[in-house]
Each structure stands twice: as C-alpha cells, then as structure tokens.
Amino acid sequence: MFAFIVQRLLQAIVVMLSVAFVSFALFQFVGDPINNMVGQDATEEQRQMLRERLGLDQPWPLQFVSFVGNIARGEFGMSYRVGIPVGQLIADRLPATIELVLVSALLALAIGVPMGVYTGLNRNSWLSRLFLTVSLIGISLPTFVIGILLILIFGVWLQWLPTFGRAGVVDLGWWTTSFLTVDGWRSLIMPSITLALFQLTLIMRLVRAEMLEVLRTDYIKFARARGLKSRAVHFGHALKNTLVPVITITGLQIGSLLAFSIITETVFQWPGMGLLILQAIQFVDIPVMSSYLVLIAFLFVVINLVVDLLYFLVDPRLRIETSGGGAH
Amino acid sequence: MAETNRPLLEVRNLRVDFPTRRGTLVAVDDVSFEIREGEVLGVVGESGAGKSLTGSAIIGLLEPPGRIAGGEVHLAGRRIDHLPPEQLRRIRGKEIGMVFQDPLTSLNPLYKVGRQLVETLMTHTDLDEPAAREKAISLLAEVGIPSPEVRIDQYPHQFSGGMRQRVVIALALCVNPKLIIADEPTTALDVSIQAQIIGLLKRLCQEHGAAVMLITHDMGVIAETADRVAVMYAGRLAEIGEVREVIQKARHPYTHGLMGSIPMIGQEAEELKQIEGSMPRLTEIPNGCAFHPRCPQSQDRCRQDRPELRSQGTSQVACWLFDQADAGARSSTQPATPLEETG
Amino acid sequence: MKAEEEVLEVDSGTLARTWDRIGRFLDSDIYYSFRQSPVTIFAFLVTLTLFLAAALAPWVAPHQTLDVKTLDLMNAFLPPAWEPDSDPQFLLGTDDQGRDIFSAIMFGLQISLGVGFASVVVSAVFGTLLGLLSGYVGGRLDSFIMRVADIQLTFPAILIALLIDGIVGSLLPKAAYNELKLYVLVLAIAASQWVNFARTVRGSTLVEKNKEYVQAARVIGVHPFWIMLRHVLPNVTGPVLVIATLSLALAILTEATLSFLGVGVPVTSPSLGTLIRIGQQYLFSGEWWMTIFPSLALVILVLAVNLLGDWLRDALNPKLR
C-alpha cells in the first residue's frame, strides 16, 4: 500500500511539473511579457531593467525553476487584462465556484445514486423506464441549453428566481459565501441545478450499469441461494460492490463539474473561476490562463489521490496482500 | 438410507424454457426424478444438457428469461415450485443448500468470511451474533480449515481455491439443510484437491443427514460418490438408476457411450470409446429421440416418436430398444394424475 | 452492345453477392433488434432527416443565410410564423440581422455535423493507431501512452478542448488563427476523445498478439504489425463503431458548447452553438425563438445520435442489457 501511494504521489508530481511546463511555455513563447506590462512608449532601457528585475534575461531552465518556485508560493504574476495580481483574482473568484460545484455535486450524488440503484434493481418497472428515458434526454441536453431553458421559464416567464449573478453574498474575510442568506440561496438554485443535471443523469446511468453488472456475479447468486433477504443482498452485498466504481465516477464527476462550471457561470454570469478563465482566453491573458491551468491540474491531482485512498477503505483486496499460502 | 413414505425431493415432468426471438427454447424437457433422504443422486451429462438449469429451477433461481414452464417440484411433501418469492427464500439455505462451481467467485470479496457465515446463520436461526460467530468458527473447523478463530476475520482473497470451496461448503451446510445441490463443485479446482473436496462434501452430508444432488460431467466422481445416477441428454433424462446398475449394465446407448469414455484399471487395453458427433444445440433438437442422430442403434421409430422413461431392471431408461421387453411398468413411473398437494 | 453485356455480367455477380450480404444482414440479430425497437427506428429516421437537411441546405433552405447580401434588416426580430406580427416566409422567425432562423439552423447543422464527424474520424484513426502501437510494442511505450490516457481521462473533454483552443489561439497570429480556427477546433475535440478508442483497440491487440498467426507471419517474412492490423481491426469494428457513435454525440455537444462560449467556430460560419449564443442575448427582451429553436435542433440531433449509440451498444453486446 505504501509503495502504491508513493507511486501515485510521484505520478502526481510529474503531472504537476508537466502542466507547469506547459504554462511556463505559454509565457515564453506567446508575445513578449515585457510589452504586455509596460506601455508602448517605454524606453529600451526601462524594458531592459524590467527584464533583469523579472529574471527574464536568464536561461530558460533557470527561469522555469523560479517559475515553479513562484507558483509554489502562490505568486502567479499580474493579469494583463485588469492589472491585478492573479493570486488575488483567483482568491476572489474561487469561493463562488467551489460553492457552486459543491452544491451541484451533492445534488447529483444524492439524487443520482438512489435513482441508479432503483433502476438497477427494478429493471422493468415503468418508473425505471421513465428514469432511463429522462436520463437519455438529460445526457443529450447541453448544460447551456438547460440553463437557458431554466432562465426562460423561471426567470423570464414566471419571474420566480434571479436570472444572473451571485446575490446575497456574505464576506467572511477569507471566504465569500451565499449559504447564509435567502437571496444567496435563491441565486444559487438555478446555476446549481443546471450544473448538476448532466452529472446526475450520468451518475444514475453508471450506477445502474454497475449494479446490473454486480447482480450478475456468482457471489450474488450464492447469497440468494443462501436465502439471504433481498434487502441484505441488494443493499449489502450488491451496493457495497458497486461502490468502488462509483467512487471513481464521483471523483471524475467533480472534475467535470469544475470544467462545466465554465459554461454555467457564463450562462448565469456567476462570478467564479470559469468566467475568469473564459475572459482570459478571449483576451489572451496569459498569466491568468497559465495559473488556471496549474490550479485545475492541482485540483484534479488532489481529487485523484483522494479517490485512490478511498479505494483502500472500501476494497480489502487492495488493503491486505493475498496470502493464499493456506495450503488446502 | 432412511426409508420414508415420500421421498425428500420429487421432481415431476419439470420443463424449463427460454422464450427467444426464434421461438421458445426448451432447456429442460419433461424431467422427473426423486431423491430420498440422505441419498446422493448424481446428475451427469455434457455441458448444456440441462443439469445446472434443473438445479437452479429446483431452488428457484433461474435467471430470466428462463422460467419453469411446467411440472412440479415437491420438497418433503410440500410443493415449492409455485411459492411466492419470500417463502421460497426461506427455503433456500435453510432446507436446500447450494454449492456452486467456482469458489473464487462465489464469495463476496468485500465481506469477511465470518460475516458471510454469521449473516446466513442469523437469517435462518434465532442465534444472536456472538453465538452465530461461535457456530461459524466451529463450522470452519468442521470443514477442515486450520486455526478458524483467525481465518474467520479474513477476506476471501486471503484463502486458496480449495480453502474457499471449504468455506462455501460450510456456508451451504451451516443451517443443516436436508438437501444440498452441488453444481460441479470441483470443476474449477486443481485435480489434486478435487478428491479431498468431494470426500469432505460426502462425509459432511452424511454427518448432517443431508441428501445431495451432485451435478457433474465427471463419471468417475459419480461412480465413487453417488447412490443413484441420472443421465441427462439435451434437456431430457436418458437413464436413471442405481449407480452400480447403470455403470455395469448401461442400457441407454448414450450411457453406454459415456461409460465407454471412462478409462478403467484392469480392463483389457481396449481403445477408449467416444461418442461420434456432438450434442445438438437447443435450437435444433431433432424429433423423436434427441440422441438418434448419434446413436449406433437407431431405428426408424427413434426418428419419429419420443421414448418415455420405462423401468428396465432396477433402472429406468428412455429408449425404444427396451419398449417390447417391458411395456407394463410404464404406469408406475408416469402417474396419470397429478400429485395431491400436501404442503 | 457487347460492352453493356459485360457490364451486366459483372453486375449480376456483384449483385448476387450484395443480395447475399443484404440477406445475411436482414437475418442478423442487429437488424432484428433494430426492427424490434420503434424508438431506434424513429431515432434513425430523425438522424437521417437532419443529415439530409444539413447536406442539402444550400439547395433546399428557403434563405441563403450565409450570404450577407440577402439579409434585410427590415426583417429583423420577426417571431415564428404562427405568432402575430410575423411573416409567413420566415417559419421560425428571424434574428437581429433579419436572418431566417429555419435556414440558419440548416446551415448550422452543416457546421455542427461537419466538425463532429471530422473530429470523430481524426480521433478514431489516431486512437486506433495509438492503441495498436501501445498493445503491439508494449513495454515503456505502452505504459507511457496508457499513463497519458489515464491522466487525460481525468480531465473533461470540454476543458481540454477549451485549453487547446486557448493555447493555440494565443500562439498563432490573429489572422492565421481565424483562418485555421475550424481545424484547430476539430483537432482540439479529437484530442479530447482519442483515449476511448486507444484503450479498446489496445485490449484487443493484447489478445491477438500472442496468437500463433502473428508468430507465423514473422516466419513467412511479413511484418507482424501489418498482419495484426488486418486481424485486430475486424475484431474491434463493433466496439469502435459504438464508441464512434457516442463520440459523435459528444463531439457535437463539445463543439456547440465551445461555440456557445465564443471560442468555437468563427462567426462567419455559425454553428448551432453560435446561433444559441447570439439568441441568448435577446432572451430577456422576449425574442425567445432566436435561441430556443437552435437549441431544440441541437438537442434533437444529439438525442437521436445518443439513442442510436445506446441501441448499437446493446445490440452488439446483449449481455450488457
């Protein structure tokens, strides 16, 4: 187990370094950073001074080392577009995205897993068929279309919910939250449903497929042959065995939620990371782009590590090495 | 063998079929047999002959779309094939235990061995958890697992294949069922362990007074273990009778062929015989006797009419070769009226 | 005359073979399960209709919306034909430029399907070759390719496509980028999808690799790689087809999403996503048709392709049902 974790950590570091290299390369090869920082009428002397101060005259491996060092200290440079340190920009935007993703993930899991279990167990009931049909539509509905439909129905026609922005935010100093006010929750409803819906249907379908797979195994047949109650067979033996793949899926889904939050945030003008990166891409704001890249990679690596560790909790085959030496 | 009025298990005209797009496939066709208390009935046949499906049908675990399309199953005088699922569940494990082919996949990998025993014991008995655990340890000891107090808290992957099959046998026997259905219990094991496991199964069932339906394709195992043997071919019973009788005086040409394929010590160095051709697929079972295309002694009649089981000596055979010899015994094996319900 | 006879003769030969093939197809389980599922037949017909609408758009669309000269601002913001104050020649209404929404959807389908197909073909070819290489060569190359695949699988397709698009966009000069945008888009989407193909093909390659004919090929002096290519490909046709169908749905969605975000296809060739983005700005002022109808077309297209993919997967692998 120890070796496994070390191996995973090493892999994570390699991933992080290669992502850092890509974002470093962005800096190196896209335009002249100096041009982006000083005005058109700066003298060549000023430019040279700035270049030396920033260490841009050193060979690139050295620059890369200091780039990684800066990232590790949370210094990502200045945004070309708004002239604010990227670290601060991200710190301002991160809570909005994290809260949105968190609520959506909980929604998707809390509804998707039970629906998946139900449809797996009752394959031919009309409710299962309904769920499956709806889920197929759900998978085919792009996130932004869901958002637009919700806005049109609940925002424009019924006028029940706010259609954009993050209202009722309470500033805790180190964090901004919408969880503490009614307005905050009201503006969170539509974005989080929009973001959750696609993942929900995906989770449901995957849990169902996994459940069907497990229900076909010999040990389930043997558990039935021993006369165990269906509840014990389904929710004990079967569900626990579907858990391993479900954990993976959930990990991946949280990753996708981060990605899809870009779309949701665009539709609802939600002031999070997604909106930030989209604007950065449109304005070729390299520091923001490269920091986003590094940050996202970091989040993914962390999620994957957590998933790997959860495996150990669930599956004894990984935790305990096989003895098998018990002769016959 | 205890003699009672009624046999422990009676299977009457059992028919299992699978509705498919190309019509209904009959996988078990009009099969009747009985098992007396404490008796070991061997069921042999090639794979696909319907042996395992017969076992699954008895215990009520046919995989859809397979279904019991006809016939009756009686356990200790009580008809069980049409029971509602919850009542059938109470019978499974408690009155009929089952041992499957592959011990590597029969145990839930995420549960400790002890937990699987304890939950089975607690489902069917009034034991509380500590008592069930005690019983589980003694069961593990009984099936020959060394240091059971330690092993009970281990996971299946920490056991070898043979050890796992012992655990599976302990699980099947743990609440003293009257009948064990063992479906190819040794096929997936090393040859060196097979004999041990069969020996263990036979001894334990004797000690617990359980009858055994031993499904296998291995005539050798049958010859050593079973009291009676049923030979299946293409979903039908070809011959059923006392083991000695069937082995020494195989009457059905198919049984004859099967016997010819076992090597025997002390026999003349004759060539091992094999049956020409292969068993038909369920989609193309021929008319008349299903065996006739491969039968060296087939007649015109075999191609048109299907032979019923008829008594022949102490055995029963479904073959036209024995029609003229003994036609009178027919009524005793095929009751004209259905059995009354007593359960 | 003689030449014609010869042609006829050849034809009868191929005709018989074709008939034979059609006969076998009609008897196959696939066709049976197709016929048994009205939903699938419906999805197939819908997909076919949308494909035809896209392919024939220049000839059958009521208005040439790609040609700016035909637009008339007098026709802007007209509602669908069944609403009051509408113009019957614009069935689904018009947009802010006076573009006919119905025709714009047909041309938008063309772009969406074109980009979708192109990226699926690119990712299928690359994925298959990489999978074959990975399985055949094994060792370090294999673990490298599969590691990359593992890592990439954890990143969602949209993110990858978005970042590739963003990075390429910032590397290329503006003018060149606008010209190449469509190709960049195809490559970005393809790059996010090759993994599924590679994994499947690798698995099948590993199975084939140890078979005797591969050894035999070496003996008779043929490079085993080419032999394997010919043996592995038929084995993976089914799974690859399923993945390709589901990938097509995903690729269309990804393209639409990128275009909706404003980083996809150039504005000069608006896809469904672009139409939805333009229309979204007028959602609040009540001109809902500008965004709802393109959305509907997109959803119907993706749903139909998904239904076909789902069905194909189940039909080729009955155990999975």
Brief sketch in words of this structure:
Chain A is mainly α and 328 residues long. Helices cover 75% and strands 1% of the residues of chain A.
Q: What is the residue-mean pLDDT of chain C, rounded to a whole number?
A: 78
What low-confidence regions of chain C span 5 or more consecutive residues with pLDDT below 50? 1-10
Number of strands of chain B: 12
Q: What class would the helix/strand composition of chain B place it in?
A: alpha/beta
Principal-axis shape of chain B equals globular
Structural class of chain C: mainly alpha
Q: Overall pLDDT of chain B, averaged?
A: 82
Q: Mind telling me the C-alpha Rg of chain B?
A: 21 Å
Q: What is the terminal separation of chain C in angstroms?
A: 56 Å
Q: Tell me the strand order in the biggest sheet of chain B.
A: 6-7-8-3-9-10-12-11
Strand content of chain C: under 5%
How would you describe what is shown here?
Chain A is mainly α. Chain A is built from 13 helices and two strands; from the N terminus they run H-H-H-H-H-H-H-E-E-H-H-H-H-H-H. Chain A has a two-stranded antiparallel sheet with strand order 1-2. In chain A, helix 1 runs antiparallel to helix 12, helix 8 packs across helix 10 and helix 9 crosses helix 10. Chain A is globular and about 85 Å long. The C terminus of chain A is likely disordered. By secondary structure, chain B is of the alpha/beta class. Helix content of chain B is 32%, strand content 22%. Chain B contains 13 helices and twelve strands. An eight-stranded mixed β-sheet of chain B has the order 6-7-8-3-9-10-12-11, with helices on both faces. Chain B has a four-stranded antiparallel β-sheet with strand order 2-1-4-5. The longest helix of chain B has 18 residues. With 321 residues, chain C is mainly alpha-helical. Chain C is 75% helix and 0% strand. Chain C has 13 helices and no strands. In chain C, helix 12 runs antiparallel to helix 13. Chain C is globular. The relative contact order of chain C is 0.12. The chains are: A mainly alpha (328), B alpha/beta (343), C mainly alpha (321).
